[in-house]
Amino acid sequence: MKALVIARLTFREGLRKKLVLGVVLLSLVFIVLYVWGFSLFVQDWRAMEARRAAAGAGMTLPYEVFASAMVLLGLWTVNFLAGVMTIFASVGTIASEIEQGTLHAIVPKPIRRWEIVLGKWLGYALMLVVYIAVMVATVVVTARLVGDYRPPNALAAYGLIVLVALILLSLTILGSTLFSTVANGVIVFMLYGMAITGGLVEQIGTALDNDVLIRIGVISSILVPSDSMWRLASYLVQPRLAVNFLGPNPFGTTVPPSTLAVWYSVAYALVLLLLALLRFQRRDL
Q1: How far is the C-alpha of 68 from the C-alpha of 284, rounded, in Å?
Q2: For 34-70, how does the pLDDT look when each residue is reduced to its tens digit (9 = 90+)?
Q3: Are the C-beta atoms of 115 and 8 separated by less than 8 Å?
Q4: What span, in angstroms and rounded, lies between the C-alpha atoms of 146 and 139?
């Protein structure tokens, strides 16, 4: 299948992009700071518990609540970095090659247009799957080895963060068949920001028991369901005690999206990819 050849070439091209290399370097910095920060947190916790025991004071909140918050912060950063890399790595995957005339040399060859788009989507998807796997594993292993804490449902959280990236990838590639590279980048990044803001508004509405704010958040998650999938991942990766203690917050939720929302998000990504295939099939080069 020629799409797999395009996928392999796209994967290699993606790894050579300066922006991807920049995100990887930032990720390495994050890993170093995260491991260091987690170790400092553990040291401070143990010192505090030793002082409380010496003073005969009662027990504080369980350790897992605070360790869970550290894991949640780490995974939120991974989710955000993956989203940024998704958008700006694939923003010009079709539009820039049309502008530069690259596709004029490829399209006349015995390869269908849909295979070009599908191949590019698969190539970037593979890159994101590998990147997110490494980053999530780093957070989980750090929590286990440094903090002696094992977060629940880490594999499910990984799958949902990958789904967030695939939603943004399909949205960006569809935009690349419709708009110029710059316009596509601005539009998709604004939609990504709208989804994050909508999630925050929904959390505020939940805390205040305000139906209007909650409804705004729900509408934004229908338009772009990326943040709702992160909210579900954040809910699953925390023990129930931590969810109840932290409550609605910028990084998590107390009311997770349903299984139907997951299926909607999967269908959303696939439909956008299908629209991108159909749009490029009819676009004049």
Answers
A1: 52
A2: 999 999 999 988 888 877 777 766 556 788 888 999 9
A3: no
A4: 10
